[in-house]
Write a structure and sequence with these properties.
Thrombin, subunit H, six-stranded antiparallel β-barrel
């Protein structure tokens, strides 16, 4: 259910601002039946090409991959970076037929705290197409230790827990209410349906960018481009009431 601090019109505006940077990546069998799908997001684009992050799970390099955008466009994708990033993503590339750069996500470079968030994803069993899921970061730090050795489990020190009513959104981007990407879903709790875990993006975006610059030095990822939609709408409502 929506966070209590936000009404439907505000959520709709957040969705409209972010949706163009979210994609679904699919593979099909010989009968054109969809086999797998994952939610990805566009990290860089120019007039000719777009780079997309998608989680390594269910990516079969022997099958043709297709990227579905929220405007209904479908583009064939090729693998650019096969080695998973620290967040578990690989990078795909599509050819942009429109001749216009695609909208990209903007990464947050500070850690997420206890705050409202939202995810846009294609959800199995949900409404056809992309769904907006709202929730809250309930634990900004989910550091866990091995019960045998007592050592911190690698990667868990950068993990946070979020309430989000979907259990199949691995790899999906988690956005704060400034429309910044604060993390990506890395696993879900198979006991509690609405509990997911995500990796803080501020701890891996720099490494991702450096790996891409090794391929193309012109690539630069957007960071901290806040969109204060809710604050702007609040001011407008206050003015209209005056």
């Amino acid at each position: 259910m929506p966070p209590v601090s936000c009404n439907k019109d505000d959520l709709d505006e957040l969705y409209e601002h972010v949706k163009a940077s979210v994609v679904s990546v699919t593979t099909y069998n010989t009968d054109k039946y969809k086999l797998d799908f994952l939610t990805g997001f566009i990290i860089w684009s120019d007039r000719k090409h777009s780079l997309i992050c998608v989680h390594q799970s269910a990516i079969d390099t022997k099958k043709t991959l297709y990227v579905h955008l929220t405007d209904g466009t479908i583009e064939k994708a090729s693998m650019v970076q096969r080695s998973p990033s620290p967040s578990g993503h690989v990078v795909l590339m599509t050819t942009t037929e429109s001749g216009q750069a695609r909208k990209t996500v903007s990464f947050r470079t500070t850690e997420a705290m206890r705050e409202d968030i939202f995810v846009i994803a294609e959800v199995e069993g949900g409404y056809r197409g992309f769904n907006m899921l709202t929730g809250t970061i309930i634990s900004p730090s989910c550091k866990s230790k091995d019960p045998q050795s007592g050592e911190v489990i690698l990667g868990s020190e950068h993990r946070f827990a979020l309430s989000c009513a979907a259990a199949n959104i691995i790899g999906a981007a988690v956005f704060d209410f400034n429309c910044l990407l604060v993390g990506t879903v890395s696993e879900f709790d198979d006991v509690s349906y609405d509990l997911n875990y995500a990796l803080q993006s501020c701890h891996w975006v720099k490494q991702l960018e450096e790996s891409l610059k090794a391929v193309n030095s012109k690539i630069s990822l957007s960071k901290d481009m806040k969109i204060n939609i809710l604050e702007t709408r609040k001011r407008k409502r206050n003015i209209s009431k005056a």
